[in-house]
Design brief:
Length: about 200
């Protein structure tokens, strides 16, 4: 019975969380091109190429990196002195495996030369029931549906949302509420919430 009631609510909360825009977009101008279109671009010398995915290889010494797209396709880019870095990175050395990346490049011969690279920490997601709230520390504990228990930190940039719009901050969250969280690991290894969708349990 618990699953029959809670599961639809969590789906609603996840929709709320995913509707909150991330602090930075890889490409705010529009959705990523289809995989076939991206591959076609990459095969045309001189053409500009746009790609988004997860960083799978970083070769600082070789001035290159590889990203893997949602369909499993991979692109290896070579960087140059004029390559621009944006988002959470200021150089190739700061790009890490597992990060989300968006790349604008130009095909020169057999190489894809990166013109601009946007990198950010890939968010993790969890949904479940709030166990406790610590206002002093700015944290709450979440018993997730995957069986894990998370201590989640919040800060001034954490976005809160609820169907009735009554949840505006951590102070409005109570134990036994259902929550869906989009979070990243900070420099100290803590889970830091970027967006939290909350709804009272029925």
């Amino acid at each position: 019975m618990f699953k029959k009631i809670v599961y639809p609510i969590l789906i609603t909360l996840l929709a709320l969380v995913f509707s909150i825009p991330a602090s930075s977009r890889v490409y705010a101008a529009g959705p990523a091109p289809a995989a076939a279109a991206e591959e076609n671009q990459a095969n045309q010398t001189g053409k500009r190429v746009r790609a988004m995915g997860i960083v799978s290889v970083v070769d600082v010494a070789g001035a290159a990196f590889t990203i893997t797209g949602k369909q499993g396709q991979t692109w290896t880019f070579t960087t140059a002195d004029r390559t621009q870095y944006r988002g959470e990175i200021a150089s190739l050395a700061e790009l890490k495996v597992g990060m989300q990346a968006g790349v604008g490049a130009r095909k020169v011969g057999d190489q894809l030369i990166a013109i601009a690279v946007f990198g950010r920490t890939a968010p993790e997601r969890a949904a479940g029931k709030v166990v406790s709230v610590n206002q002093a520390l700015g944290t709450f504990t979440l018993a997730a549906r995957n069986g894990e228990t998370y201590t989640i930190y919040t800060d001034a940039e954490t976005k809160f949302r609820s169907p009735d719009e009554n949840i505006q901050s951590l102070a409005d969250i109570k134990p036994d509420m259902l929550a869906a969280v989009r979070m990243v690991k900070d420099a100290e290894g803590h889970f830091l919430a970027k967006a939290v969708g909350v709804k009272p349990a029925k």
